[in-house]
Amino acid sequence: MLRAFTYGALIFLSAMFILPFYWTFITAVKSVSELYQYPPVFWPSDVQWENFITAWFKQPFDVYFKNSAIVVVMSTIGQLFSSSLVAYGFARFHFKGRDVIFIILLATMMIPWDVKMIPLYMEFNMLGWINTLKPLIVPAYFAEAFFVFLLRQYIMTVPIEIDEAARMDGANSWQIYWRIHLPLMMPALVLVGTFHFMNAWNDYLGPLIFLNDQSKYTLTLGLSMFKGLHETDITSIAAITVLLCIPPLILFFFAQRYIMDGAIGSSVKG
Amino acid sequence: MAGVQIDGLEKKFGNLRVLKGIDLDIRDGEFVSFLGPSGCGKTTLLRSIAGLEDINGGQVVLGGQPISKLPPAKRDIAMVFQNYALYPHMNVYKNLSFGLSLNGVPKAEIEERVLNAARILQITELLKRRPKQLSGGQRQRVAIGRAIVRDPKLFLLDEPLSNLDAGLRVTMRVELANLHKRLGVTMIYVTHDQVEAMTLSDRVVVLDQGKVAQFGTPLELFYAPQNLFVASFIGSPKMNFLDVAAQAAGDKQLKVSADDLFRDITIALETSPANVAGPHKLGIRPDNIELVTQDEAHMSGQVMLVERLGTESQVHIRLDNGEDFVAIARGTHPAATGDHVFLKFPAQHCHIFNGEGQAYPRELDAETRSLIDRQKSLHGAAQKGEEK
Ligand SMILES: Nc1ncnc2c1ncn2[C@@H]1O[C@H](COP(=O)(O)OP(=O)(O)OP(=O)(O)O)[C@@H](O)[C@H]1O
Ligand SMILES: [Mg+2]
């Protein structure tokens, strides 16, 4: 009885979560006539798969995709690298004012992006980076407070003796980072990578502010172009949105398995 | 292979002086234990030798070379950590070869050295496994293997057996002893287990609050402790102590008396004591106390508890002056709780300490003396054998 209730509740909640996705999906494949029908059609009779292709070619989405891919890949690499290195520094090196600096770093998480927007624009403008992809990539090479915090916690679970053993084995600080800590924090890196990937992939405000030419646009910007002043191409928006969901879904699928696989993480001590 | 000389080693953590001027001369090929109570600085001393701690004074010389300024990797020292500190993401082979590959040893040689170490430690079948898939004893072996492959001048081991269960500890103890014999390399071993220190070591360093209390062979520590600390730390159950007064009595003799003692005890010393004023302490080990009749006795007391261990009985006695003593009697000794017993302290087994806690070197009987000498020379002979 309780079991039935639990399942019922779970199915209901799942349905609640899935519904918007389902709605987007059917909107993408509906014919024009069914699109505005009232009451709404939940089960399109005329599924138009070609809507995806039509939407894709209404704008230079191949260019947008290339731009998005460059931004996401380059910035994710930078984020993984810089955040883990900074985390390693905070976790394993003793220097004057370390804790104060760390607190300041954490405090930067409190500053909303909206506040930084204008100064950032001025800064990138001064560097001549406006209307290039650099403002979307380069900051990732300077670490992100939350990821630093996450990875530092992870490193701190590794006994210091492992570092010392490596040092006795002849490893320098860089080699200890590269050959010991980086492989050990793989699960945490996958997590950070996934988070960052999602942020960069879905980022709208950044590209909107820093990019001017259509040839520099990312996918999210291109998507918004369907929303014209007078009319909105709902079918194309839904179709591209569905396509935009695919890479994160694939990533999530693999990342999840990786994070679940405890073989790599933990188990340092016996 | 090389000996280790430590001169005036000082180590502070902030304002806390942890090592207060350590001087040691460890010979080539020797197995030396650092023994002492928790917090006395054993690990700190070991880590200072390894270079994992910066020292605040003094120096360390390994094989004639001052090493205090060198980074750990350049010291030619290998260390086995208490929690093994194996690299969790590498299999056993990689764990063993990591240091070699970092140092640019050719692949073929790495393989040879790893396989050789694995054979010595009987872990050849485990080379493909991750540390997680090993038992405690196997991990211990891998940790030792990681030290062996590097063929260092000096092995440092920090309580390597403390994470193992009692049975395995004994096995590994024997294996360590064999390994030392086989490799002939100088080893320093940190432990707070007396039995390990006494059975494994050529010589033992007893540390007390950051100072060397005594550095000697196991039997020396037991039969000729140089001070109260060593006397009470070595041996189980602990040595019993009694406040006494002392006076010189003829050539190389010390007469010990106290109000509580029924009769004086005259102890034979190696040299005539210079100044015997002030309070003294008499020490006697539980197994040297004899339960006798009143006419031979030095003191008497009441039995509080008898612990029967089979081969012996540990008799806990409250002396008439209120002190608690432990005496060891034969397994079938009839003493029972509440009994009034008489104790005899045979003079040849008594230790005597001055007001500063320093022992007067006592004259040992011929048997003990020759045993100690033999322990000293055994090591010397082994060493010469290695040098050939
Ligand atoms: N990194 C450190 N910072 C501050 N104090 C320390 C540090 N390491 C050790 N100490 C202090 O130094 C003293 C000696 O410590 P050490 O670890 O050498 O003792 P030990 O003899 O190895 O003890 P145990 O048998 O418990 O391992 C202790 O009082 C300890 O609190
Ligand atoms: Mg210790």
Automatic annotation (TrEMBL), chain A:
It is found in: Cell membrane. SUPFAM superfamilies: MetI-like (SSF161098). InterPro entries: MetI-like, MetI-like_sf. It is a multi-pass membrane protein. Residues 65-255 form the ABC transmembrane type-1 domain. PROSITE patterns: ABC_TM1. The chain crosses the membrane at residues 7-26, 69-88, 100-121, 136-155, 176-198, 234-255. Keywords: Cell membrane, Membrane, Transmembrane, Transmembrane helix, Transport. Belongs to the binding-protein-dependent transport system permease family. PANTHER family: ABC TRANSPORTER PERMEASE PROTEIN MG189-RELATED, ABC TRANSPORTER PERMEASE PROTEIN MG189-RELATED-RELATED. This is Carbohydrate ABC transporter permease. It comes from Maritalea mediterranea.
UniProtKB/TrEMBL annotation, chain B:
Keywords: ATP-binding, Nucleotide-binding, Transport. PROSITE patterns: ABC_TRANSPORTER_1, ABC_TRANSPORTER_2. Residues 4-234 form the ABC transporter domain. Transmembrane segments: none annotated. Gene3D superfamilies: 2.40.50.100, Nucleic acid-binding proteins, P-loop containing nucleotide triphosphate hydrolases. The keyword Iron does not apply. GO terms for molecular function: ATP binding. Pfam families: ABC_tran, TOBE_2. Coiled coil: none annotated. Belongs to the ABC transporter superfamily. PANTHER family: MALTODEXTRIN IMPORT ATP-BINDING PROTEIN MSMX, MALTOSE_MALTODEXTRIN IMPORT ATP-BINDING PROTEIN MALK. This is ABC transporter ATP-binding protein.
